[in-house]
Amino acid sequence: MALSPTWTNKSRTRGLILDAIRAARTISRVELAAATGFTGATISELVRELIDDGLVVEVGRGAPTGGKPRTLVQLDPRARYSVGVQMERNACVVVIVDLAGRPVARTSFHGVASMPPDQALPMIASQVDALLATAAVDRDRVLGVGLVSYGPQDRRAGVLLSPQPSEPWLEYPVAERLAQSLDLPVLLDNDAAAAAIGEYWLGAVDRRSTYGCIYMASGIGGGIVVAGEVYRGSSSNSVELGHMSIDVNGDQCPCGNVGCLENYAGPSALVRQAAATPALAERLAPDPDTADFLTEFARIAAAANAGDPAARRLIERSARYLGAAAVTMTMLFDVDAIVLAGPSFAVAGSIYQTVIQEEVDRRTVTWRTHPVRVMPSVNGPDAAAIGAAALVLQSELTHGRTRTEEGRGVGSRARPVPVGAESPPRNTEPSQGKESA
């Protein structure tokens, strides 16, 4: 039965229609009504508004279906942009994406980890400003900035709840201070959650599916997406795979748990293991005390790819541990797929994918009611940064928070509500009949 929205949730309805257009790439009004359940009159009215706002364009006619060919619509990718910033232990990545979620510019730099936040955030802001200028992106079309990092955080307050990379970062108002420096809204989120939603925004997964993401950069994280929404938990700090205990008698982790996955399978763990392996210690001379252990890890992964048996054994053992995490994710959330994202999968990703898929297939054979596919991220090493930008697009557009509504101009700097905040409910009152679009 078709639905018609009330005025109180009109913005939410616009967001649902925008998301359906995004997912379909090109679609007719009749197909939009079928996909969303709204009346033809509602679809026609709101699509017209979206066209007037410059978010959607008509792109010709569809194939004949026995009647008048239907007019197709799609997002105008240049109508809006967002910025994604990934703060890692060793590097910072900045990307600009268009309304379709496609990257249009990128930069990366080192040094943030060695700075206190009152020095690091202005540096990040200057890099964002320079990238926007280089890409010739009109700032009035920029919806905001997604800032993602690792570890626990308070998304609503915009603060990190971990003294990493150093003590001054603990409870520092990172989102507020970066927003002040840029004069743009800033949304703080977890890097793994961002990487997970980036797959959805670029259409790499079915928009109705439940899927997991294992994110590996300097550490290991996880994310779950259910029908286009990140699973958050009560404080938005869920699915911390890297701190899942895999050995109850293991060493204590700085997080307070014991036997954490990250201390067996993460990049820093493999660098330590390689340094303790005579053959690899002689050939690669890995430095377990280096701050840039991602570079050391990449050398081990490259050796494994090149056929070094000792290096391959280390990578495969790491992959089996991650396979155990993937099995746990499968059993807990009944996922359709598991995406491998992050820079640490960039070099030896094919080894990880093969071994993790084998572990999932072997260890869930009795319980599996459908196949679970392990696949690489479409966003590659920059998955978290691209996902950070996608979270802004999702917050501002698909949750009905476009700046063009309620008299706000495109240049308004009103801060977006976090994605996890409560949104107006979708209207469920039936209409008096479905109208044609």
TrEMBL record:
It comes from the Bacteria. It comes from Glycomyces niveus. Belongs to the ROK (NagC/XylR) family. Residues 425-437 have a biased composition (Polar residues). Pfam families: HTH_24, ROK. Residues 399-437 are annotated as: Disordered. Residues 399-408 have a biased composition (Basic and acidic residues). This is ROK family transcriptional regulator. SUPFAM superfamilies: Actin-like ATPase domain, Winged helix' DNA-binding domain. PANTHER family: BIFUNCTIONAL UDP-N-ACETYLGLUCOSAMINE 2-EPIMERASE_N-ACETYLMANNOSAMINE KINASE (PTHR18964:SF149), ROK (REPRESSOR, ORF, KINASE) FAMILY (PTHR18964).
